Amino acid sequence: MNVGRPRPNLWKPGTEFTGIDKRPVAGPVRVAPPGPKGTGAVGLEGDRAGDVDHHGGDDQAVYAYAGEDYAHFNALTGREFGPGAFGENLTTAGYDVNAARIGERWAGPGGLVLQVTCARTPCGTFRGWIEERGWLKTFTREARPGPYLRVVEPGHVEQDTELEVVHRPDLDLTVAMYFRAMMGERDLIPRLLESPDIPPSEIGYLRGRYDEG
């Protein structure tokens, strides 16, 4: 579990701050719906988005990344990435978060329910933060993005919190598929648009990406 406060953004012209610098905390930390995008509010108490036009809000309230995917990139690059390095709130273990389906729900302590909404896509801030030559191409090629989640019911998380998948939609539309569609495989977009769980804010963007092709 990782949170952070905005810091100056040195890598993305026109964006003054970034919230990518996340650090592990023990918790417990309150998790609740942050409200609409544009304020910098996110799901975890003590956390904040810096680039308020592109991050935060209900549909990107929480970002999860798998420890197994960190191990993959560590082996690939020779680096030692660990919890929070990619800007995630929840560092998971024992579950393939990229195989999670859009609309899938995870339950946790205190009545917490999270719902998978979409995949993270890489940006110039992420590239600059990681400081790895060719990083965006590498991250895109490996297609291990991790999901964004909305908060359906508030609760709390702490270190070693167990989350349980309590709902898995029938449509096999995964986080990895969403990422691939956004990063160039436009033929996947019509399938994604079949999902009733795609956030309205993402539908227009997906249609725009499809029309570009």
TrEMBL record:
Known InterPro entries for this protein?
Benzoxazolinone_Detox_Enz, MoCF_Sase_C, Pyrv_Knase-like_insert_dom_sf
Which is one GO molecular function term here?
Answer: pyridoxal phosphate binding
One matching Pfam family, short form?
A: MOSC
Top-level division of the source organism's lineage: Bacteria
Give all residue intervals belonging to the MOSC domain. 23-166
SUPFAM superfamilies recorded for this chain?
A: PK beta-barrel domain-like
Chain intervals for the UniProt region annotation (Disordered): 1-41
Kindly provide the name given to this protein in its UniProt entry: MOSC domain-containing protein YiiM
Source organism (scientific name): Glycomyces harbinensis
